[in-house]
Structures are given as C-alpha cells and as structure tokens.
Amino acid sequence: MKDQEYIEVYGARVHNLKNIDVKIPREKLVVITGLSGSGKSSLAFDTIYAEGQRRYIETFSAYARQFLGGLERPDVDKIDGLSPVISIEQKTTNKSPRSTVGTITEIYDFLRLLFARAADAYSYNTGEKMVSYSDEQIRQLIITDFADKKIAVLAPLIKSRKGHYRELFEQISKQGFLRVRVDGEIKEIEKGMRLDRYKTHDIEVVIDRLLINESAEKRLEETIKTALYSGNNIMMVIDIDNNEPRYFSRELMCPTTGIAYPNPEPNNFSFNSPKGACNKCNGLGIMNEINLHKVIPDNSISIQNGGIVPLGAQKSSWIFKQIQNIAERYKFKLTDPIKSIPKEALDIILKGGNESFEITSKTVGVTRNYKIDFEGIISFIENQYANAESTTIKRWAKGFMDEVSCATCGGKRLKKEALHFKVSDKNISELTQMDVTELAKWFKHIEKKLSEKQLIIASEILKEISTRIQFLLDVGLDYLSLDRTSKSLSGGEAQRIRLATQIGSQLVGVLYILDEPSIGLHQRDNQKLIDSLIKLRDIGNSVLVVEHDKDMMEHADFVFDIGPGAGRHGGEIVSSGTFEELKKQNTLTADYLTGRKEIEIPKKRRKGNGKFITLKGASGNNLKNVSVAFPLGKMICVTGVSGSGKSTLINETLYPILNAHIYRGVKKPMPYKKIEGLEHVDKVIDIDQSPIGRTPRSNPATYTGTFGEIRSLFAKTPEAAIRGYKPGRFSFNVKGGRCETCQGGGVRVIEMNFLPDVHVECETCQGKRFNRETLEIRYKGKSISDVLNMTIEDATDFFEMIPKIHRKLKTIKNVGLGYITLGQQSTTLSGGEAQRIKLATELSKRDTGNTFYILDEPTTGLHFEDIRVLMDVLNKLANKGNTVLIIEHNLDVVKLADYIIDVGMEGGKKGGKILCTGTPEEVAKHTTSYTAKFLKKELK
Q1: Buried b (16+ CB within 10 A) or exposed e, 732-762
Q2: Which residues, including other chains, have CB under 8 Å from residue 191's CB and lie 6 or more apart?
Q3: pLDDT for the residue numbered 1
Q4: Do the beta carbons of residue 740 and residue 759 sit within 8 Å?
Q5: Which of the residues 187, 316, 379, 749 has an alpha carbon 20 to 30 A from that of 708?
Q6: Nearest by Cα to 48 from 98, 7, 89, 101
C-alpha cells in the first residue's frame, strides 16, 4: 500500500501515552477501544485532532492568529497523512435559550427562506388573503371600478393613535394640501387646527378629487404616485357619493381594513432578529410573571408578621414607613390580617401609586401633609429581576415568578404578522412544532399543493430541507421537533444532531473523530447510527470513533485496543487489526467479546423493603399522564428508546420533587398530580456527568475534600508547628505558601504576540506549585507537591493510618480510578471519570440506608471491565438498603437490576407511556417492548 493510505503517528506522548507509533488506515471506519482512562481520547482528540486543528490555524495570517490564541503543539514526534479534521464531541452544545434543533441543523434557515419567498400572506384582522399591486394595476382598477364617478384619492398618515396632531396639520398645509379626512369626515385645514389628544384618530390627507373619465387618466397617474409616496406605499380611494373607502398598496395589504405588512424577508421569520421576534418576550416564547400566591402565600397573616414574603416582618425601613402612610390613608393597621385590608390599599401596595393627602391629628388637632410615592412590590421585584447586576438578587426575584408562555405570541416567539404567512395552510411555527417524522411526511406531499410559480421559486429550497430532514431520521432523531431548545438535549442527542449536520454538508476527504456517538442510544437505533457512519466513510472520508460498543466494533474496518490497564498502566497499543483478529488476542477487551469473561447475572433479585414512592399523573413534555411506583431498597433501572420520556420522568419530575422535599431545592418539577411515600427516604443524590470543575486549579483532591485533610495533616507536623504554618500555607490558591511566579499553577504562560502562547514549566518551582519553604515541610519523607503527584493507588497505601483520608481515597480506588493522580487537573478528566469521582465522593460519606441515588447513564465512557467494577460498587449500596435508580440502555447494567421500568413505545409524541415493569425476567417476556427483545438475548 502507498504511504498516503495511512495516517501515521510517531512518538505520541500526550498524557499517559507511552511514546507509541500508530498507522491508521485512511477512508475506513476505525474504532479505538480500551479501558476508561487508558489513553483513547489522548490519542484521538489530544494528539490527532489537536494537531489537525493547530495546522489549520497555522494557515491563517499572523494578524488573524493573534485573535484566536494559539494552540499548543501536542507532544508527538510527527504525524503524516493528516487530512482536515472535524471533531464531534458531546460537550459542545449551545446552552442559549435562542438555540433550537432547527437553528443548529440549519433547517430553520431554509424554512425562513421558503416562507419569505413562497408563502401567501393573510390579514390578521379578517383572515382574507393579502393583495399587492403595481402602480399600473392600481390605475387600471380605478378606471374600471370607478368609471364616470367622482372620487377622492387619499394617503393614510395616522391609524388608530391618540394625539392632537397640530404639528402634523401644519406640515400638511406647508406641502400645499388643503383638505384632510379625520375619523371618516373630510375637513379643510384651518390655522391652529387640533384634535382631542385623548381619543384615537384616523387621519388621511386628501391628495386630489377628480371625476374618472378619459381626460383624467394622465392626472390620475400623477395623483397615484403622490398618494403612494405620502402614504408610505398605501393609498385610499373614496367614492364621494357613498363615502365607501377602498385601499390599494404596493406592499401586502388587507383589501378590507387596509392594514399592510412589509414585504417579507427571511429576517421577518427569525425570532433572533428584532424584525421578526415578538416584542413582548423578545423571541424567547416565555415570560417570567409574578405569582401573587408566592408574594402573599397566606392572607390570614398580617403585614407586620411578614405576610408579604418579599418584605419579611416589619422593621424600621423606608418601605415600611410608606406602607404605614398607605395604612393611615386607607384606615387599616399593619397588624390586621391581609385579607381584611381594603382592595384599593392592597393594589397600591402591590402595584404602586402616587398621591398626597392630609391627616388631622386627633390629640393635637394639627393637620399634616403626607405623600405616598410607592413603586409597588410587584414593580420592585420585576425591576430587580430585569436590572440587578447580582445573580443572587436575580435568583431572589425569580423565586416570586413563574415561567409562563408569552401571552402576546402564545409561546410561538414571532410577531403576529410573521405567523400569518402560510404555505399550504401552515405557518412557520406550526411546522417547527411537528416532530421530524411528521415534518418529513408534510414535505413529501407539499409539492402537489403549491402553485406553479411557488414551485419554481421553492424547488431548490424544498430539496435542501428534505435532505436535511432525512439525515435527522437516519441518526435516529425522528422524535425531536425543530422548536426543541438545544439546552434540553442530552449529550448523545446533541452529538447526533451535529453528526446529521456534518453528513448534510457532504464534505469529502475529511477525518471525522467521534467521541462515543452511541451514548444514550437504544440498541434498536444503534444500527441507524452505524449506517450513517458507514455512509460518511463511503463518500470518501476517514472516520475515527472512540467507542466501547460491541456492534460498532463488529462493523468497523479496523480496531485499535489501547491498554493494558488505565492511567499509567495503559497508554500502549495492545492489539490492532480487524474485529475477528481482535477477538483472538489475549486482552481484556477480547475476553469480554468472546465471552471468556462476562458480567454475571445475579442468582436472585433483591426483595426490597416493601415500601414505595408512588408518582401519579406525571405529564411533563411527552409523558401521557403516567403513574409509576418506585420500589425502595432495590436497584431500579429505567429503560426505553431515546426520547421516550425517561429523563423527563426522573430528572425533570421525580428528582426535583425529592430535592425540594428534602433540601428545599428551587428547581420546579414538571407537572404531576400527586406523590406518595416521600417520608421513606431521607437523602437524595443525583450523580450526572457534568465536569467536577471548570478550571485547571480544581482536581480530584480538592473536589472530594481530601486536600483539606491533607493540608491539616501537613500543618500538624512538628516542623510546620515550629514555623507557625497553618493549613492555608499548603494551598496553591492563596498567597503565602504557593510559588508567586506561577501563582500556584506550576506552569507559566508566555504570550508570543504572533505565535501560539507557550506553556513552560515554572523556572522558580520546577512545576511543583509551592515555594521552597513550604516544600521543606515533609510528612513521611514526602512534600505536599509529591503527594499531589501520587496516583490514588499509591496515596491509599501512603495514608493508610489516617482513616479520614484513607476512606475517601479507597472509595475512589474502588470505583476504578486508582490510576489518576490526586492533583490531576479536572479539565483533563473524561465525563465518565468525573461522574465516578462524584460517585466516590458520595460513597465515602456515611449512607443512611434510606438514601435515593439517581444515576443518568453511568456507563458513558466505560469499558466492559469498568462496568463490572462500577456495578459492584452500586450493588454494595443497594445491599445496605439504599435505593439506586439508573437510567440506562446498556444491557450489562439492565440485566443486573432488581426492577425495570420500561418507557415507550417510541420517542417523542409516540412515547411517554409505561410499557412494562418488573424483574428483568418478567420484562423479557413482554411482546411489544423493544428493550424486552434485546434483553431476552442477553438473559439466555
């Protein structure tokens, strides 16, 4: 084979890679597998992708590069045969409320173009189709419809607005016009003419009055031009005999009422542009509205005792003095219950008011003036929410508000004009609310319903939309709708949307690197995903996938297994070849693939403690008013195809209810009718995959709290006591003990104006993060810096005699993370590792035996062996009487559960029902459940 048929990597040493050389075949589907933490991502993302990215940025001019910030060259000798690289990871979704599935896939951009160019406009007043004319058409219509009649041609200036309009009349008079039509009556303009400023008026200027016959044609042409110019492209013709108005416009206009729409542009349909966005909610579709019940939860309490929650109990402040004035004016006391306060007084307290009044003192007989100038509690909370800079104050204000659909646009995000443009009786918002399957059907039949002119304009746009919708169907996202916000997508869904967008771009000769695309995907949809990747390969791209999924490995052209262990025990290529060659090797991966090793099915299932938490009538998102009982003291697994409603049921409904009950959490659960059995749990813990820290200064030691203990231990050594060092001396985040040259970072960033920033080891502390004096303090011969560089495995033995530290480190080791170092930057940990550190932190705390643990897809990023280790830990929790609830597709986990709740049938609108519940053996007998079909094979 020619050299160019491979991507060749020589001497890769990033993170834990042991100076490895790899030849990756080009234009093939290649899978990199291996234990979690063995170095798969280090090879795929931190070496190959980072170098591809760096070379791309190197092609920019020096001027452009200074704005991008440079990229470090990965620690590798050389990489040959590298194509342009595109990485599709899980973490890159946009969390903005303005980003939706439609905008990410660009389908919405094409829809906007379709509506701007091919839609019919309808009047929002009468529902009639809007019309627009050229000047010549207007002239012909007037000549035929008003032949031999006397007419007045007018230009509308003001429509239903208040004001006295004196300046407007002066301006019209200066332009040489003599008459105006005010509220349907033609008047001559007089000097100083003005109207009632508090009434709404319609004003048109009379351009000309003429009899329509042959001699008037030339004059009519001039009149039309002047009228359209003055009336901003709209004019009005009145038959003088019967005073009936008729409107004509160059733009879209309602023939009966004369309202006009501007000519549509794609921007008019964008909720991110001021031209299209609803003015009330600014295109978000939701508003925060004050909930009076939260402001005054109990109207039998008095104001003095804190009946108005935002104010609290009475204290001596300006606000209470104002309320005292209102009380004097409306003759009530602050000690009266709120329900007995007069309605006008309560309105002023809540909504504000201005008035002055006099009160005569009964004892002295002196009259005093009081002034109420009160903005009102509701306005105050709204102002704080809109304008406060502090997030704490914003959160406080939001506590009295409910998120409600915007009343003006009904949650549709657009102005009413945009919603009255229709293609085949559907407006753009109705299309974005359909799920992708429905939308695909609609577009299939649309061509038959369009006029010939519309078809010519729209044929290319329709082609683009249909292919993009097809790609979404191909990656198994048929249940999403285009208006679904991107922040509500799971990591796997977001990654597959990006994959669909990439397939849609039809690039060739690119290297795609994917990070576990099968996450959150049910076995049923796995084949669709694999077919999409094969399609990418077949059009001439190289596809490199970091993956643990057996089906994916079977379909790959080539598989690399990295190991043999994790962390410093990994970083080598233990086998490479086709799937069949891989199975013959003597590696951990091969053992699980061939069945030499397996995760064993338990002999008997736990009985649980007989208690239940019962959730009734859950109806959030796509849930169909479901009721579920969660048996306590068991390991429960919630399964179902992607988008069937598992996360809505657990993360959006059950967890917020438990959290609010036990910890007074503020997250609002999705709608449900009632919940029973909360008294049976006294602690709830939700362990997800979000990173444990966003800065390089955060690490496993600081997150788990071990570092605090270690610092106290160092502060207690005799030498530290003599020098008077406190625990703070051993922190690299505070002045005192840290190296000030690098401020405790261990590396210094040297800014090169036109070249990439260079990270060099700090020359003062040689990367140890602390100053010389601090490093002189030793415990068992090790300095604080040596301890941070120890792996968890070594540290567990080192701190054996210190129970507090030993217990925490041992749990991290037990969840299979013995290979990471105590001081490893949390930004370098994978999602699976971060989740297991959180799990270890929770495990090291004393459990109550009544704790409810919730884990969302904990097998992400885990190899078969890692799953076995993780399940051992979770089984120990359940054995102590705790409840462990796992949302999962991985059958190795599902088969170990004591109780399965299967949600289905499909995703999206066809989902949201509970199909079956029971032990894995009972669920496997179910006839229609997709999970049952795959579980049956697994239990054999």
Answers
A1: beeeebbbeebebbbebeeeeeeebeeeeeb
A2: none
A3: 42
A4: no
A5: 749
A6: 7
